[in-house]
Amino acid sequence: MKFNTKTIHGGQSHEASTGAVVPPIFQTSTYAQPSPGVNKGYEYSRITNPSRTALQNAFAAIENGTHGFAFSSGIAAVDCVLRLLSPGDEIIAGKDIYGGSYRMFTQLFQKYGLKFHFADMAKPENVTNVITSNTKLIWLETPSNPLLKIVNIQAIASATKKVNPNILIAVDNTFATPYLQKPLDLGADIIMHSATKYLSGHSDVVIGALIVKNEQLAKDIHFIQYAAGAIAGPIDCFLALRGIKTLHVRMQRHCENAKAVANYLVKHPKVASVYYPGLENHSNHTIAKEQMNDFGGMVSFKLKDNNKEAATQFIENAKLFTLAESLGGVESLMSYPISMSHASLPDAEKEVLGISHSLIRLSIGIEDIDDLLKDLEQALS
């Protein structure tokens, strides 16, 4: 199947007992067993649930994996990946990553003996130079949050595996989605999604995903999933699966609108800089063109007035763009990273990364582009 068909049919089948076209919500915690050790493949919903199975099969299909796993949130999926490791193991992550991942790395797992290194991943050697005999995981995020930096997945995976083929490559594919890039095809071992965002697409569910294609890795992840218990519930699975069925058409419009917004902001006299991988002056535009099918629905920019007051005025003036956490829904949202998504970063780190008081992150929805541009114009003016 091609991708647009996979989002609707990939990994799916009609429900066996009734023929239901849409997998139903199996709102049950347990399952009848006719005899000890005899069941129909389900025993207890923390271990497996038919609604979750349907979603997990869809996750695997759209990412060209063999096994998908649904978690209670994206950060619960990150937690599962780190539980694959042991005290003393080392992880190399990008400097410009989601603040929640940074917080989990440094404030939770560091005290349990994991060691984290944060590198500028613009070049593969910046990663390989940090690898030691204890390195077990490389954590990539591309495009990154919030400055939309691009990491060359294939180059870093290839360079890392040459040093040590046992090092795991994990990619946060939340911003790109499999509509734009498929990290498993580029050498990654694990894909993570905050499926709350584009995969679900309607701002009505919190859910996370992991996808792999290695059998032993799948077994290890499934053990952690049911042993730790951070599973996605059946209603959340139903909503996420419904969202995936329109992922391809939504992403097409997200990308179209984001390009128009980025090109508009570049020309605006009150805007200092625009971060969007589709712009030719983006530092990794060439890699983005090679690695991605399009450039996504996220745009970040800085105002020329580098102060909180100017940013606040713009945010409060906007009408269609809603100030809110999260992203990837059908409606356009804006975020103020310095005090929202990246509030947990130390101030010194924010300054180094360029997360300033004038930085605003936009999640471009699928509204009419003329209305979005008019809203930006009146908010800026």
Automatic annotation (TrEMBL):
Q: Which PROSITE patterns match?
A: CYS_MET_METAB_PP
Q: Top enzyme class of this protein? A: transferase
Q: Which UniProt keywords apply?
A: Pyridoxal phosphate, Transferase
Task: Tell me the lineage of the source organism.
Answer: Bacteria, Pseudomonadati, Bacteroidota, Flavobacteriia, Flavobacteriales
Cofactors, names only: pyridoxal 5'-phosphate
Any keyword Repressor?
no
The text of the family note is:
Belongs to the trans-sulfuration enzymes family.
| Database matches in Pfam families | Cys_Met_Meta_PP
- What EC number(s) has UniProt assigned to this enzyme? 2.5.1.48
Q: Which NCBIfam families match?
A: PRK07811.1
Molecular function GO terms recorded:
cystathionine gamma-synthase activity
Q: From which source organism is this entry?
A: Pseudofulvibacter geojedonensis
Q: Which PANTHER family match?
A: CYSTATHIONINE GAMMA-LYASE (PTHR11808:SF15), TRANS-SULFURATION ENZYME FAMILY MEMBER (PTHR11808)
The record's annotation in InterPro entries points to: Cys/Met-Metab_PyrdxlP-dep_enz (IPR000277), Cys_met_metab_PP (IPR054542), PyrdxlP-dep_Trfase (IPR015424), PyrdxlP-dep_Trfase_major (IPR015421), PyrdxlP-dep_Trfase_small (IPR015422)
Protein name (database record):
Cystathionine gamma-synthase
